[in-house]
Amino acid sequence: MKDIRLTKQNQLYHRVADEVIEIIQSRRLRPHDPVPSEGELAKLFGVSRMTSKLALQKLAEEGLVYRLPRRGTFLAEPQDGRAQGGFSSQDTAVLPAAEKRFGQIALIMPHLSDYTSRIIAATEAEVRKHGCDLILKMTKDCDDEDHCLERLAEGGITGIILFPQGRKTCSDQVLRLKLQKLPLVIIDRIFHEVEIDCVYHDHYMGSYQMTKYLIEKGHREIGYTSNAIDHITSRRERYQGYIQALLDHQIPVQYQNIHFRTVACDTRRINERDSEQERFIQDNPRMTAIMCGDDHVAISTIHTALQMGIPVPEKLSIVGFSDIQLAAYIPTPLTTVRQDTEKLARSAVDLLMKRVGNSNENPITIKIQTSIVERQSVLFRT
User: Fold this and answer.
1) pLDDT of residue 70
2) Closest Cα to residue 92, out of 104, 72, 68, 74?
3) What pLDDT shows up at residue 189?
4) What is the mean pLDDT of residues 172-176?
5) Rounded to 5°, angle at Cα 244 from 198 and 219
6) Fold of domain 8-81
7) Paired sense of beta strands 72-75 and 65-68, if any
8) Fold match flag (104-201+342-368 vs 203-340)
9) Using alpha carbons only, what angle is made at residue 318 by residues 222 and 117, rounded to the nearest 5 degrees?
């Protein structure tokens, strides 16, 4: 390589840009291969990092390369096979079946279930459409989640989609990543104390509409049962939707009809008679319907009622929330609120890629609407 230690008057960065093109040609780089970094170019040609940065920016503006925050600079695809910047498509051969790779997106999940599995599958499909790879991380608790976020950021991840652990407030690590402007989208949770990109189902309205559905079916003594709220916004909003629907229809809130479990529903034993659900049903014989905070609790409640000799829905209607796969295959198929995981994933990935593209819009909150799936667990009450 020739020495290009020239003056600023000779527009040094233009010469560096020309040298980068020569490097691309001599190394026969393929589209999406990494191009030498600002630091490497500065050392190679004895120029400042600012000069190297300007050279790469020039090539990016010409469409010869693309740059990803914290990832580096990569060779772009030739447009329609035409020559770009003095080198032809023959100079940078493209693998016929090559798939574009613009980076790695991390999806962090707190647990694996039917619902989260559907989110994972939908997110992977959406990420692939954007030419990225998906990295899946499962966290055990809040500390593990913070550690995972820190490691991913240090490793130069392109962006992160986070399904947070249940916690009272937004974690310090999430706030640090927000300040660092690392593309980050929260899903299925919302932190009201900080503005941050968020995509979540409208749990409040889903529960409101389901309670309204029961009222329209003639029920007035409608109970509510759920796992403990435990600072989880989705659980709190579902409970609030139930309460507001009763109030809006002038139905008194009977707090003896409301039950929050002391021990979380055991998803491995939901086909067995559950002592907590049994006591709740026995203590409230006037209830004609029960709104459950999620499908696991609903399925457990149905099995418990049936084993108590209480027919569902003839004597007791029961509904759930989420529409897990099992809901359609229990002895009394469950009427429930369906959460559209494909739309959730698509919205989260699209929003994240907008941030990867350096969008300067204010933080965005996207609510995904739910729908009611009618099966056989509700009876019209005359």
Assistant:
1) 65
2) 74
3) 85
4) 90
5) 125
6) Arc Repressor Mutant, subunit A (1.10.10)
7) antiparallel
8) yes
9) 125
d(CA 280, CA 341): 32
Mean pLDDT over the full length of the chain: 87
Q: Are 222 and 251 in contact (CB under 8 A)?
A: yes
Q: Is 87 helix (H, G, I), strand (E, B) or coil?
A: strand
The Cα–Cα gap between 13 and 22 comes to: 14
Q: What is the pTM of this model?
A: 0.72
Q: Going by CATH, does the domain composed of 203-340 fall within 3.40.109.10? A: no
3 state DSSP class of 106? strand
CB 343 within 8 A of CB 117: no
Residues in the chain: 382
In terms of CATH architecture, what is 104-201+342-368?
3-Layer(aba) Sandwich (3.40)
**pLDDT for 313:** 98
CA-nearest of 302, 363, 305 to 336 is 302
Domains of the chain, by residue range, sit at 8-81, 104-201+342-368, 203-340
Question: Which residues, 6 or more positions from 187, have their beta carbon under 8 angstroms from its beta carbon?
Answer: 119, 161, 162, 163, 198, 199, 200, 344, 348
Question: What's the rounded Cα separation, in Å, for the pair 282 and 273?
Answer: 13
